[in-house]
Design goal:
494 residues, 13% strand, 44% helix, nine-stranded mixed sheet
Amino acid sequence: MAGVNIKKVKPSNFSGMIPFSFRRIGDTVVVVNEYGNYLLLTEEEFNHLMENGPTGFGRALTNELKAQNMVFDKDTASRAAERLRARFADAARVTNLHIIIVTLRCNLKCVYCQANAASCDSHETDMTVETAKKVVDTIFSAPTKLVNFEFQGGEPLLNWDTVKFIIEYATEANKQHNRDIRFNLVSNHLLMDDEKLDFLVKHRALLCMSLDGPDYVHNKNRGNTHAKAVKMYKKVYERYMAEGIEKLPSLIGTLSKHSLPYHREIVDEYRALNSSTIFMRPATTLGYAGKNWSEIGLTPEEFLEFYEKMLDYILELNRAGERITETYAVYILSKIIAGFEPGFVDLKSPCGASIGQLAYNYNGDIYTCDEGRMLGHQGDHTFRVGKCGESTYKDIIMHRATKACTLASTLDTTPGCAHCAYKPYCGICPVINYYETGELSPNVFTTRRHAVNEGIMDILFKRLTIRENADIFLEWVKQFVTASRGDAAPEKAG
């Protein structure tokens, strides 16, 4: 602990304090307790805390220690308990995100594809109506009020008849089940037509389209499809606006090495399409992307450099009066600032494997998550937890892969994570860990995801030290939390 005289640090100094961890970012020390409350201290203030405990500070900082539940007394006990309850509340909910792979076929061959998409010529990987019925019946067996059906692929519109059947069958079956059901479609939109759009509008399906930026970025990653993708997005967006549907179609992008110079241009492309949110994720090493990694892959350092520039540009736009947000930052900031669990399965402890999401392959095989399903396509079925029509929900939840993922992703017991200052805000993926290292719970400091998440949180806390940025972040969180209240559906961006 540079700058701290360890001989002066006495356990008795911390009597009445909540256990905390800390991390230095430049001249600022971020102090975080078990509940996710945080303080930003100068080096001098931190040294005083380490040597004297919570005594001898000025009134303002003493009051801040209490306000952030750093000092345990009768006034902070209830707030601290509520914050801790909120942190783990999502782990107690029953699975409500159900990812359905209606086909492995795809009309594109993106350079970063992690799904090992199949050729359009073969229908062998199309989900049949008989299998689809078993999938829906299995989903309704989960004892949850909220049920999110999310269609993915491949390209789900290539097996439109099965998508349509599932929506109609689930809607009819729900007359008996009386659940809050929602339908999401993650698609490239290139095969959208009036008939499909009419049906999706009728059922208020939430649409998400892939767009990597302007044409010279998007086309490099996804083939010469930018013009048609934008045309179709505008069409569905305008239709949803005209129908007065609250949740408008959204965009999601994936970064490859080709994207790195264009952080402003990518944001501007989203702005031109009336998108008030930006969500750009780095390519992963799964599937075809792994085989193509030397050409398209990003190091954590490259991604973080891009992310920091993109976030600063978005903050610049906000300071000029434009309200546009970065989605991953909003998820993390909602935990940091509000103690609100957004339900984003990649940032949960334990992670969302089985208990937050399930993935249903075209043949009815059930996996802990979509990453586990993708690994299955590479011949490794470690994360397969059942079969539709044969396995009960209890079988799935009690499967050894479910239990192994839950244990391996609980940060409080994970070496390297247990004492990290960012533990209340973070999450790990046992599937990616297993794929990249051969272990469910490796030395996290060697993993790509650790480097990316830690780097993003450093970037966010560094900007929280600037009042104008902190005010913008607070508005983002208020908007997100207000919109999310009462919606327990976890998010899993295609």
